Amino acid sequence: MFSAIAYRLSTTFLEEQQVCGASSSAMSKKPAAQPTLHKVIMVGSGGVGKSALTLQFMYDEFVEDYEPTKADSYRKKVVLDGEEVQIDILDTAGQEDYAAIRDNYFRSGEGFLCVFSITEPESFDATQEFREQILRVKNDESIPFLLVGNKSDLGDKRRVPLDACRERAQAWQVPYVETSAKTRDNVDKVFFDLMREIRSRKSDDSRTANGNVRDKVKRRKIKCAIL
Amino acid sequence: MDFESPDVEKDFPGLYASESGRKSNESDFSDGADHEKPSKKDLLGRRKDKKESKKDRGYAALAGESSPEEDTDTKSPSKSKKTKSFKFPSKSKEKREKSRDKEKVQEDSTKHKELNEKEKKKEKEREKEREKEKKEKEKREKLKEKDKEKEEKAKFKLESKEKLKDDKKEKTKEKDKDKVKEKDKEKVKEKEKDKKDKKLIKVPSTVTSGVPFEEIFTLGVALPIFGVPLQQSVERSRCHDDTGLPLVVRDSIDFLQAHGLKSTQIYRTEPDKIKLQQLRKLFTDRGPTYPYHWDVPVACAMLKSFISELPDSILTQELHGQFEQATAIAEPQKEATMVSLIAKLPTCNHNLLAWLMRHFASVVDNEQVNQANIQSIANAMGPALNMSLNLLAYFITKAEKLFPDVSLTKYVPPLLSIPADFPESAPEISAELRKQESLLNQIHAEMHAGFITPARDQQLWEAQRIVTQLKRKLRSVQKSVEPNSLTQQPSVEEKLPEDEPIRKDSRTHETIDTVSTQPQTDAEPIKTPIADAFQDKKESPNVPDPTFPVEFEDNFSFQPANVKGTQEQDTPPFDQPLEQPKEKPKLTEKELKVLRLELENAEYLQLKSILQAKINSEQFEIVKLRSHVALKNKQEGNTQTNKESKEIYTPEEQDLRQRLMKENAMLEQKRLSLINQIFQERVACVQLKIELAMKEILSKS
């Protein structure tokens, strides 16, 4: 009898702890007043314009001279559908040499812009591999992901047919957008579209995660209504 | 405890409340158990039958259920201790110390209590078992008991398994909560992992599978910084400026230089053991230290224990004897011999020695205030350094002459963010950039070793962002001073040559490690033809050594030296016609050479860091696999060995074995040749990249 009472006490106590944990987590977040942070990673072969897109988005500048990137990271505050958010952009190396470093970043990325140049079929082919790599690291088919055909200002030198791009995007079930880092065409769009995907993804996640947690504590769920 | 730390209470309302809650809970529980006992005895006395025994089992299960709470309880004091060290960076020192001491006492007492309680519980469980046994004896009279017993045991097992599961659940929950405590999250996790580790030893069978790696090892456990070769310690936890000292050493010397020179305690007083232990743990876990962790005796002891735990002499095994012998030489030659011997030391040893001796010298300079002379330093540090008094005295008195290029400057760690008023001058930006890149490399290396936590991820992105910011700044500064751009470039890479010996050193180990297991003769013929292609071009002045590993290494790290030789002596034809005619008006030959060497240096450094990262991850993989093997062996050691011994005896198996062995040998050979090819191609790639970069720079200017 007494042990049963003790047991009940212990479970209620555990629930209280959970509530405390939840409330303190809410509290610790509020005072900081940090806007939500979305982590975006640029991938694609060398020279397709990942850095150019990033710099255009960050600083409205177009850099003509090419300098291979090892890895660069930027942060910017933007207003996404009326809500202030922060975007972290990681500009990775296209060259295979830095693959080891790249993996470390892939793991923490929340959304990916997979860039190729519409004037360079090889870069288009390479997107396949990047996609696989990302899926391998993230282990998630529905990770926020955009296929981006850059250098749309060089339409006369186009060597990757639009149909092929759309087809691939269809197969992956991701959006396809053509951009020009030079003319700033669609540059904001790709970043904002991706952020929206990340955002909706996060809210989904938190919902399912809550569900899971509840499943786990099924037995102690009864009084969890306080939450 | 609650009253003494109101701040913590405010910050984490759940922290102490929960603890007291737990305690009351616990006492409730034991109460219940106490009441439980007599009733059971009653039952026993009346010789109740099966039903009662089932009820008993129910209680036993409950006891199992409760054990997680005990667990968390034992955890809590250490946790609160942990958080403490972070909570009051601003409080005054004495206050903090007092409160900490008190808390320690309290913690100890609570620990004792908990231990007692645990023991009580165990006893109770034992009693229960005894009771069961008694009951079973009684049943034996009525039934055929053996089957029963088995059943009983099986059920008991099930219960204990459930207990384990619950344990796990509890832990995951615990972790979720920990996420709240942003700052010390990592720490606490690691603590928990420690706990889990211990658990694993106790019950390896159920918990091993599927436990992520970082939960078995902590960074401090897997990649220790104490008691490992100096080079490794520097790689794992270093100052991110150009000194190449282990952080422990630098921090200790910094502290002593700042606060110890005028203190009579320096190299004399025994440290507070607990404080020393705490500081040591902080360094092992790569945690931040705050001034209140330090005092003069502790800093001395820290330095001493780091040095005495180095597996090798600070003067290296080969040179130690020569150093000692050199003390006997008469003066004019003595200094020259010493200088030449010091020059032979590996960079990290040289740095450590130089800093120590310069520091000791400055301590002795203040003898009138701190009353520490060479003798007292020798007493304190001689055994750790394993140096004779003569040698140590010589080093200290001649420190300035022997190590003229070292000055004791306070370490400024890499910035956490770039302030708005960050200096706009290229040297300062590039100095900070180097620090940040060093930090970034370290984070990458740690992650490659398998230590991936959200906190480290965050750190990685932040460091990367600062690097990017600095690069942009540097570029804009350089652009604004366009004509100087060429002279400034060297400043970015000034320090690279200093790194050279370190790299060489580490590579020697690595290459020998990787190669020594493989048959040398096999690799040699495959390698040389490809290697010739490059050797021809460079007309290497260094005759390749006959042994394979050394040659391997030669090619790799002495390359810059080779190129230097060729360019200075007989400029090779293959790059001369390309660049010289165009650029003569603007760039002198010398500048070109410098530029080329710099580029080459940068390339190799990059290559080095990548390889280093891979090596680290592989080393860690080895550790991990070994531990898994060990665990597996423990689990199924007996059955496995039986099977294996059977397999060996059948002739068919023998055949298969031989075939496989042959195949393996072939594959090994192929692998070797592939490694060589990759290596050669890397070299070629680097060369081509340099070519490209040179052209680009030249065409720009």
TrEMBL record, chain A:
Membrane topology: Lipid-anchor
Main location: membrane
Listed SMART domains: RAB, RAN, RAS, RHO
Any one cellular-component term (Gene Ontology): plasma membrane
Subcellular location, record wording: Cell membrane
GO biological process: signal transduction
PANTHER family registered for this protein in UniProt: RAS, DI-RAS, AND RHEB FAMILY MEMBERS OF SMALL GTPASE SUPERFAMILY
Family membership: Belongs to the small GTPase superfamily. Ras family.
Annotated protein name in UniProt: small monomeric GTPase
Organism of provenance: Parnassius mnemosyne
From TrEMBL, chain B:
MF-aspect GO terms: GTPase activator activity; small GTPase binding
Pfam families (UniProt xref): RhoGAP (PF00620)
Biased composition range(s): Polar residues: 477-491, 556-570
Any GO BP annotation: small GTPase-mediated signal transduction
UniProt region (Disordered), positions on chain: 1-198, 477-585
Residue ranges, compositional bias (Basic and acidic residues): 20-58, 91-197, 492-512
Domain Rho-GAP, residue spans: 228-423
InterPro entries, alphabetized: RALBP1, Rho_GTPase_activation_prot, RhoGAP_dom
Name recorded for this polypeptide: Rho-GAP domain-containing protein
Record organism: Parnassius mnemosyne
